[in-house]
Amino acid sequence: MSGRQRVTGSSPVSSTSLRLERSDKRRLTRRNPDLSGRRRSYYYINRSKTTTWQAIMNTFYFVYILKSLKYPDKHYIGFTTNLDQRLMKHNEGGCPHTIKFRPWIIQSYTAFTSREKALTFEKYLKSGSGREFSKRHF
Is the predicted pLDDT of residue 79 greater than 70, yes or no? Predict the structure, then answer.
């Protein structure tokens, strides 16, 4: 092996894989005529233009705890896939359970990739021992 060391257990990245990665990135960018030819990156999910962060956040299920600004001892526990929209709905009066204690802020939230686990955790937080747990830890 004249001057070379043999590497075992790993495979170096080839230029073809890097080329494929670059072409994938190019495929995800589109020209925007309003911005005089500058490129903007979009990921197409369900035929709607979303940013990478929005695409990631839409894959999570959130269990959240709201705290009333007017009545600091009032809390609300809920489940959603979009935290921003849900908080706006609570503060606009779209939920009859939270309309009396507006405005609300998010005290804490937990993200899950499984809908079932998120709903189970929400149900637990609404139980007696779950309320004690949230008082101690959140």
Answer: yes
